Amino acid sequence: MVKREPRAAFTTLHIRCGDDIKDKLAEAGIEGDYLSFTDPAWLGPPPSFNAWIAGRAALIAERSGIARAKVREELGAAYWRLARAPQHYSHIVLWFEHDLYDQSALARILAGFALRKTRPKIDLIAIDRFPGVKRFLGLGQLSPAELASLWPKRRPVGKRQLDAGTRIWAALCAPTPEPLMAIVAQGVADLPLMKAALERQLQELPWTTDGLSLTEREALRALAKDPLSGAEVFATAQLKREPQPFMGDLFFFAVLRDLLESPQPPIAVSPGTRRAVWPRRVLSLTPVGRAVLDGKVDWQTQSPLERWVGGIPISRRDPPWRWNPKTKSVSLGTR
Questions:
Q1: What integer pLDDT is reported at residue 3 of this predicted model?
Q2: Strand pairing partners for 182?
Q3: pLDDT per residue over 216-271, tens digit each?
Q4: How many other C-beta atoms lie within 10 A of the C-beta of residue 6?
Q5: φ and ψ of 92, to 5 deg
Q6: Which of 245, 124, 112 is CA-nearest to residue 188?
Q7: Are 16 and 34 in contact (CB under 8 A)?
Q8: Quick check: 320 and 300 in contact, CB under 8 A?
Q9: Are 62 and 96 in contact, with CB atoms under 8 Å apart?
Q10: Residues 75, 53: contact at Cβ < 8 Å?
Q11: Which residues contact 132 (CB under 8 A, 6 or more apart)?
Q12: How far apart are CA 317 and CA 306, in angstroms?
């Protein structure tokens, strides 16, 4: 356990994507206030600066199905606390794991802190594995004692990390993938878990092999043998097969919805479950889905719905950026 220190007038603020370790930190004796910052920074498109909170709330509500008023209230409160954190706290500790959700949020937070003329002490705890955890998905898997063991391993955040966060955040919002690709190619020495996370973002572009994103492909692969419920597709595609799970079930169901509502849908819902909530809808592949999954048809030729990868628009009107899994790079063109 961590030794308790006297509570000062200005105390520590712990920032994390979610509430999963909030009570555990207290149980471990790691004192301080807690901020759950759950803006999925990987999700695009980024709204204009003057409409940031309202635009993000509208986007998150549309993709998650959560009421816009609720999202707006919670997101506004989180950004308000984040903006005032450098004034209200003498120590800020960032707790983030390796996946795209966390690393993109980390870049967003660092970019904001970089704009401040004065900052408190900032530390970072960021890991991609933990001894004894066979498949490490996130800090929420750890016990209070295991979280406490990370406390002495925190690392200071200085100008290099803040500058890196600024570059990465700009690249995530950019309308083309070249800035992200440049960062991935060079790596981020000061934020070593960023490279893999940003590469995962690029893998949401259409692939040269079949025109599917990695998330779309894993969803279809989950249905390759038998129909499954939405909850089963999520568990198979994200929790079992996804190399770097980062997408919660609500955002995953939005991907399924886009596939289902496409002019040539690759999936279908069984008639008896069409009105059921997404976890209970029974899904199956259509002939189009089978052909795409077998590599006989390129998904981008089937007029899929428009979507965004961060700031990059994916539509018939926009440049056809593709991820090449063999070269692990991005290029213009079809397969």
A1: 45
A2: none
A3: 999 999 999 999 999 999 999 999 999 999 999 999 999 999 999 999 999 999 99
A4: 6
A5: -120, 130
A6: 124
A7: yes
A8: yes
A9: no
A10: yes
A11: none
A12: 10
Report the pLDDT averaged over residues 150-171: 98
* Annotation: CATH topology of 12-173: Dna Topoisomerase Vi A Subunit; Chain: A, domain 2 (3.40.1360)
CA distance 35 to 85: 10
Where do the structural domains in the chain lie, given as residue ranges? Answer: 12-173, 206-332
What's the rounded Cα separation, in Å, for the pair 107 and 166?
A: 7
Q: Mean pLDDT over all residues of the chain? A: 94
Asked whether the predicted pLDDT for residue 2 surpasses 50, the reply is: no
For residues 26 and 140, what is the distance between their CA atoms, to the nearest angstrom?
A: 14
Residue 237 falls in which region: left (phi positive, over 0), alpha (psi -120 to 50) or beta: alpha
25 touches 107 (CB < 8 A): no
Identity at 75, one-letter amino acid code: L
Kindly state which CATH superfamily the domain 206-332 is placed in: Topoisomerase II, domain 5 (3.90.199.10)
The answer, yes or no, to whether residue 4 has pLDDT greater than 70, is no
Indicate the Cα dihedral angle 140, 145, 149, 154, nearest 10°: 50
Residues 126, 3 contacting (CB under 8 angstroms):
no
Outline where 174-277 has alpha helix (H): 178-186, 194-202, 214-222, 230-234, 249-260
Tell me the per-residue pLDDT of 115-149, one tens digit each, with 9 for 90 and over.
998 999 999 999 999 999 999 999 999 999 999 99
Residue 31 CB coordination number (10 Å): 16
pLDDT tens figures, 282-324: 999 999 999 999 999 999 999 999 999 999 999 999 999 999 9
